[in-house]
Write a structure and sequence with these properties.
This protein is mainly beta. The chain is about 0% helix and about 50% strand.
């Protein structure tokens, strides 16, 4: 079973920045595309960003120009650099393999205050 561990969340003011990390067991980051998802209270889990093995990225319209996804396969780690944060970005953030989802981790809480 693959274990995914998200970290880096916290409480920030609107306009601030956070860098999320996702570490995985095994060698999946060198074999799979990866994606970030988020789930706000009372809402469904939504796609945020993805990165392919070749480094091609894709973003939800709501975060384009503000978030950047990257990966370090040697460290089995994928990152989400978030800037210009807005209160509507408040959610629990999860990473997973793309396009076929594996096990979900615990996620990391991001709270943006106004």
């Amino acid at each position: 079973q693959v274990h995914l561990v998200e970290s880096g969340g916290g409480l920030v003011q609107a306009g601030g920045s956070l860098r999320l990390s996702c570490a995985a067991s095994g060698n999946i980051f060198s074999r799979n595309a990866m994606g970030w998802y988020r789930q706000a209270p009372g809402k469904q889990r939504d796609f945020v960003a993805s990165i392919t093995l070749s480094g091609r990225t894709n973003y939800a319209d709501s975060v384009k120009g503000r978030f950047t996804i990257s990966r370090d396969s040697a460290k089995n780690t994928v990152y989400l650099q978030m800037t210009s944060l807005k209160p509507e970005d408040t959610a629990v953030y999860y990473c997973n393999t793309m396009p076929y989802l594996g096990n979900w981790g615990q996620g990391t809480q991001v709270t943006v205050s106004s």
